[in-house]
Amino acid sequence: MLQERVEKLLDEAFEENKSLFLISLEINSNNQIRVVIDGDQGISVNDCIEISRSVEHNLDREEEDFSLEVTSSGVSEPLSLPRQYKKNIGRTLQVKTAEEKIEATLTDANEEEISLNWKAREPKPVGKGKHTVEKEAVLPYSAIVEAKVMITF
């Protein structure tokens, strides 16, 4: 019952701020509620506060005791939703599949797949040595084991 009420309150809060979206919602047996959110333009502390207030102010502690934590998806967290991939187009990702690990630029993302572009050194077709070639890959989300945004300084 608590899960349904929290989901409804989150839906209402995301309707008010359509640039924010839910990554995960966990409620354990002790009524500890953990909400992880993200945003199309990133997340601020104020965004977390607003979502927290939207939930907390509409639940009655007299009826059911709970604790609430609202956090943003961290930079070290893997991408999990197509919307997260879309907001990171143009950034470098490290993508693991069952067969390989690719570090590439995310060039496109839709509801079914992502497109990656990168450069690789390969042996020349004739003669000795290596040359640089441009590579592209289109991966369905089902083929991705893990994908993380690479942070560069």
UniProtKB/TrEMBL annotation:
Domain Ribosome maturation factor RimP N-terminal: 19-75
Its job: Required for maturation of 30S ribosomal subunits.
Residue intervals passing through the bilayer: none
SUPFAM superfamilies for the chain: YhbC-like, N-terminal domain
Principal place of residence: cytoplasm
Xref: InterPro entries: Ribosome_maturation_RimP, RimP_C, RimP_N, RimP_N_sf
Residue ranges of domain Ribosome maturation factor RimP C-terminal in the record: 79-153
Gene that this sequence comes from: rimP
Name listed for the protein in its UniProt record: Ribosome maturation factor RimP
Gene3D superfamilies noted in UniProt: RimP-like superfamily, N-terminal
Organism of derivation: Autumnicola psychrophila
